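My hope is that you will study the protein record below before we discuss the fold together.
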Amino acid sequence: MPLVVFRVDCSAAIGMGHIMRCLGLAQALREKGIRVLFALSESSPAIERRLLENQINSETLNLEAGTDEDLQATRKLCMRLNAKMLIVDGYCFAADWLERVHDNRWSLMLWCDYVISDQLNVDVLLNQNPHAVSLGYGRVAPNAELLLGLEYVVLRSEFFQAKGLRRERQQLKELLLTFGGSDPNNTTLKVLESLEGAGFSGCVHIVIGPLNRFLDTIQPALNRNPNWRVYKDVKDMAPLISRSDLAISAAGTTLWEFAYSGLPTIAIALAENQRPLGQALAEARAGIYIGITESYSGDRLVREFFKLREQPASLRSYSQNMSALVDGLGRNRVVDVILTQIQKKAACD
């Protein structure tokens, strides 16, 4: 069976978004009989457990990501294992790095979310965000197959296995709160303090990622609010999403999981690269974007939250618009392109 290597990272600084979306693609490839391996610059027990639970092998390179050492280690790994495709997902891989890691023995796919100014030598470029078509990738990667926009959103298998996930929200009874794998600015605490200050003590499902270091700081609020429950290192988000009527969330790729589920969202950007996603959510009238965490406004959050709670018609409209954004077929479209690339390499052997 052919092998696809994912060169991807996660950490407390960058969160787990890259590795989780790669996990969804890896699951789909394994269903097609393709072997996969994750190459990580550093790892953690939580990440290793998550990959093993999905029967995905990994190698930890123990080096600084995006360096010449990383380049050589990645090339040696692909050569040793006779990889047919290398998928690179991260912010530290420059155009020159990508040029030198490329080889005629394997296809190269870049999964990115950002503007690129340098010429790229890649076979496939994937950006699953709605603003991707406006970023001029055709100029910098003229020879690449471009997979741009929400029709290429890759979801993990759990979202297709859950029952009752895709439903129209009509009344706000249960709230889901999640700020990624690490939540480096402890936005979770900011939101909980705002809700508690406004007197809300209803049902809240609080998801804490495996790289989050702030669980102790929210414990006092949990002690005071028996209807607020914490879920640490959740393996399957689908049941929580299914039962929730609104999410307050980071403006990352989790938004597109909520979109597939029809879950309206109040989004907060945790970093500059999340701003376009939050803005796109608002423009589609699928949710509310209240800005970046450094300029967080508790008053704005509370105002928008209670408005949705008191106006079921608005919640229902947001839910309908949300579910129209993502059809759930994106990972099949991406896999088809990858399989074609693998077949091309196999024909050259």
Observations:
- The longest helix spans residues 330-348.
- The longest strand covers residues 3-8.
- The chain has 14 helices and 13 strands.
